[in-house]
Amino acid sequence: MLLHLFILSSFLLCCVEFVNAGITSAFIRSEFPSVDIPLDNEVFAVPKGQNAPQQVHITQGDYDGKAVIISWVTPDQPGSSLVQYGLSDGNYASKAKGSFRNYTFGDYKSGFIHQCYLDGLEYDKKYYYKIGEGDAARSFWFQTPPKINPDASYTFGIIGDLGQTYNSLSTLKHYMHSGGQTVLFVGDLSYADRYQYHDVGVRWDSWGRFTEQSTAYQPWIWSAGNHEIEFMPYMGEVIPFKSYLNRYPTPYMASKSSSPLWYAIRRASAHIIVLSSYSPFGN
Asked: What is the pTM of this model?
């Protein structure tokens, strides 16, 4: 074992000698601390239309990048869980039907959380999709990755501890102009655990609307952090990761994982392993 560790360490050190990432951005985040954006700010605006889909986000749906999971919330009624999609804008040749759920957290009751699985997608294609009904229907698009290949060129963004402050907004806007194609999110999403009672759920909703400007158009690969635990016995909530697990699905079964909190995927030239350092474990 020691020999194996020595060989691995030597290999990594050799690799480091030949890596030159350089300065990738001139972006400097403003001074900490930053306060949460008020709920009446336009970045949290509810989309127009009766029961219009909101908080739209996509993530990879399989192991090799030929499927996505599209999620959204309808606030008032279940509505439709149908996704129409295709390779040209407005011409949706395919459709898939998902399912919905909701949950409670203290005295908060969520809207109807839809999740729909689209598979059999072609590599390196732009897909257009539509969700919702009638005048409240909304349309978006996403790009599938290139075929799995060690030489495939692909750009990932890495974001963590985003929250919903004014600094969060500058970070998100900066990422959206960076040319990133997929976000590897390293935990601590909404920071809703800074709130209590009904406001915990409200701040999950606002974060979903806030990030939709990116998450509806490209996959964010999720992992949980300590701010997703939300152990709040004073309000009767003792199940860890309850809000996170209800809202943000992962393709854990595709990698034969036993939990949505840890899994693996391949995307372009990357093999990504997602771990959960805040999950209990046994022998």
From this structure: 0.88
